[in-house]
């Protein structure tokens, strides 16, 4: 594992830029369920320091959906910072019986957000707007945010003030608008380098950061107005019989099924096709369905090479300590089964 070396200057500049976008919502009080040991949680807390109006940050020590609702009803924040898996877990609760009337702005990042999840949360929590953003630890968490007043469905928003963004091909040449390529970021928040075995890893750093541009390893494209759309991680790409399958495309379809609360897709080694698509799903409270039904549901909505041939229903999709899908654990479980 590699450590990421960030600077105080980068944290200050990115949080200041983030505060400019955040403050456009008019929200001042924030409920934060992200650990401060993770850059996304840290950045959210420092962002509050740069806000023009006074307010508070209420910290939840460790995310628990039931407790989060209790805290929200008690402290009455206008805003909350979550990751998509937390939204999915909240959707399994009785949101309508909780007083969330103070909440009108939710920012999310750290993983792709399904449009269906966003729309259901906004529908069930009246008056709230969920705005997705994008970044990674290597750029001090955030590179883009959807403006509160002009969010774009399916997009992770516009570059923060002071952040440059480009999408390139395998030769590092910019691709046309609307074409997929690797997302690259240049800003004050770009890391000082990777840290491995007690020293700066110059080789890994030079591979990731070239001419000041952080090559994120994410696939995405820009629209004509500069909004970014992230497709998936390059390393999570499944190649089935020579066809590229992005897990997010499959996960979004599964999440549109009324019985599915959360979903994660990984590749399983296959002697003929190279990889096979395997989906892990957790069901909504009280819901029932079968793996066969979910395979058929996906087949009807995805290309022949994309739909999962195997669906495994579990009590909960495994998450990392910061609420992201633990694909490493899923790949291990997939290969063992």
Please supply descriptive tags for the structure shown above.
single chain, 337 residues, alpha/beta, Rossmann fold, GMP Synthetase, Chain A, domain 3, 3 domains, 7-stranded mixed β-sheet, 5-stranded antiparallel β-sheet, 20 strands, globular
Summarize, please.
With 337 residues, the protein is of the alpha/beta class. The protein has nine helices and 20 strands.
How does this model look, in words?
Helices cover 27% and strands 28% of the residues. The chain is of the alpha/beta class. The two termini are 26 Å apart. The strands form 5 sheets. The protein has a 7-stranded mixed beta sheet with strand order 3-2-4-5-6-7-8, with helices on both faces. It folds into 3 domains: 3-159, 3-Layer(aba) Sandwich (Rossmann fold), CATH 3.40.50.12780; 164-233, Roll (Luciferase, domain 3), CATH 2.30.38.10; 237-336, GMP Synthetase, Chain A, domain 3, CATH 3.30.300.30. The protein has helices at 8-23, 39-49, 65-75, 84-90, 115-124, 202-208, 247-255, 291-301, 327-336, and strands at 3-5, 30-32, 57-59, 79-82, 105-108, 129-134, 144-145, 158-159, 164-168, 181-186, 193-196, 199-201, 209-210, 213-222, 228-233, 238-240, 243-245, 260-270, 274-283, 310-314.
